[in-house]
Give the backbone structure.
Amino acid sequence: MMGRAGSVEINGLRKTFRTRKRAGKTFWKPHRSEKLEAIAGVDLSILPGEFFGLLGPNGAGKTTIIRMLCTLLEPTAGEVRVNGFDVCKDADHVRASIGVLLHGERSTYWKLTAKENLEYFAALYHIPPRVARSRISELLELVELSDRADEFVERYSSGMKQRLALAKALLNNPPLLMLDEPTVGLDPQSARNIREFIARQCREEGKTVILTTHYMEEADQLCQRVGIIDHGRIIALDAPAALKDRLHQEDVVEVEAGANGELAEALRGCPGALYVAAVAAGNGSPTAKRYRIHTRDGRACLPRILETCADLGARVEFVRVSQPTLEDVFINLTGKALRD
Amino acid sequence: MITGVLSVKSPASHGRALLALTKKGWLHFVRYPTWVVAMLFLPLVFTLQYVYVAKTFAGPQGDALAGFAAQAGTADYVSFLTIGLLIWLHLNSMLWDIGHSLRMEQMRGTLEHNWLCPVPRILLLIGGSLIHVVISLFWIALVLGQVALLFGLSLQGNLWLAALIMLVMSVAVYGFGFCFAALVLVHKEPDALTNLVQSILLVLCGTIYPISILPGPLQSVAKGFPLTWGIADLRAVLLQGRSFTDVSGNLAVLAIFAVAFPCLGYLAFRLVEGFVRRRGTLSHY
C-alpha cells in the first residue's frame, strides 16, 4: 500500500541537537553541552509530481529536513508523512518508496564498478534479479555511463560519480526523489547536465522532487515552488516568480568593487538604496567584493553609487542594473546574502 | 518503461540482500592484494611464534613437558597451541568484524546509504561481516594443513562434535560483536579498544595455556567468556577424544551464552542506533 505516493506532509517539525562546546580550562570537564534548535517548527505540504526546492544558506536547516524525511534522523517533535507513511512508525516503507541523493560522490563504492554498485543496491532494495538487470542497463543508459559500466568508480570524474549516485537513487523507481545539493562541487557543464537530467525525470515520469540547494539559479530554473529557509524556519514559500514579484517595485544594482571596509556602509547611505548586501566577488578575487544594492530606481541611483565608490577609492570592476533574483528575495527577507 | 516502486520483499529477497552484502565484502577483500597476502601467512606466523617458544621450554627431547601435560591434560603442545590460537583468531574475527565493517562504511561514507535501504539492520550487520567469517574458516583449514606439514598434528575425536561446539560458540561470540558494533556507532574509532580486549581475551581465555594456572579470581572472570568454554571443549574433544556426554555440561553453558548474548547484543545495538538517529551522528567519524 503506497498511501499518497509522491506526497510529503510536515506538521510542526522540530529538531533540537545537543552540541558540545569547549568550556576551556578544566581538564576533567573540557566541554559544555548546549542546545541548538536546527529546525524550529516547519509546516509544509508537497504535492505528488511537484518539483519543490528548499533554498537557504549553509547551516539553515535544509539537509536536516531532508535527513528527517528519509529516516536518517529522528525528529524531536512534529509529524512527518512521506508517500503516506509516517517516518517514525513506518520507516521501512518510507525507505522502500523514496530515492535519496546525499553527499553524492561518496554514496557509492569506489572499489566496485558502476554495474556492481547498482547490482548491490538493487539487492538491498529487494528488486527481483530479472527486473534489476533491465533497470540497471536502462539507468546506465540514461545517465550515459553504459560504456564505462565495468570500470571502477574510483576512475570516474566527479560528474560521473554524481550521475551514478543519481542512478542509484532512481533504482527502485521511487515516486519521490530527495536530492541534497546535487550539483555542489561540480563544474558548470556537469552541473547543467545534472540539472537537465533531474528536470527531465520529474517532467517525463511525474516524480516528486525535493531539492535542497544554495544556488538560487538552480532553484529558480528547476522548482515549481521554493521554500526559503533560514535559522530552521521557512520564511517564504511560493513559486519563484511569485517570490520575485514581491520585489516588483525594486531594481538591483550589482557592483563589483575593490574591498573596502567602509564601502558597504557608505552604499547604504546612498539616496534610494533600500538594502545592501556584500558577498564574495564572482571572480573569486580576494581584493574585490560584490555588492547588491536594492533600489526603487536602479538607473537613477547608479551615478550616486559610482560616486560613492570613487570617493572611497574603491575601483569598480563591474556594474549592472538587473531584475531581482531569488537571492534578492532572501536578502530582502533576512538582510543578508545567501552566501554570507 | 518500468512503472511503480520495484521493491518486492520476500524471504528470497532477504537472502539475495545477504548474498549481495557478502559479495561486496569479498570484492573489496580481493581488490586489496595486501589483505590476501596477509591472510595467507599471518595466522601461520602468529601460531609459529608460540609453538617455537613452547619448543624452547620443552627442551630438545621434550624432557620438560611433564609439568605442561599435568596442567593441560596432553603433552601435544603443538596441537594444544594451534587449536587455542586458531579459535582465538577466528572468534576475534567474528567478534570485531561486525564493528569493523561498520567502521569501514563510515570511513568510505557509504554507511548512511546502506542505512537508507529497506533491509533489517541485523542483515546489514551480519552481511557486512559474513565474508570475514568465511575467510577465517579458510584460515583455520589452511593453518591446520601448514602446521600438520611442519610439525605433525594429532587431532582425534569426533569432528562433528567439534563443529557443533564451534557453531554454538560462534553464535555466542556474535552477540558480543553486536555490542562492539554499538560502540563503533557511538565512539567511532575502535582500534584501541580492539587491541585491549583482544589481549585480555588472549590472557584470560586459555588460548595458549590452560586457565587452571591463572589466579582464582581471574579464573572466575575467564568463565564469563564463551571463548574459554569453547576452547576447553574443543581441546577435550580433539586432543583427548572426549564424547558428547563428557562435554554436554560445558556445551549447555555455551548454549546459554549463545541465546543470551545475541539477544542482549542486538538490544544494545538497537538502543544505540536510536540514540545515534536522535543525535544525527550516524555518519560522523
In short: The mean pLDDT of chain B is 84. The first helix of chain B runs from residue 11 to 30. The CA atoms of residues 245 and 251 of chain B lie 10 Å apart.
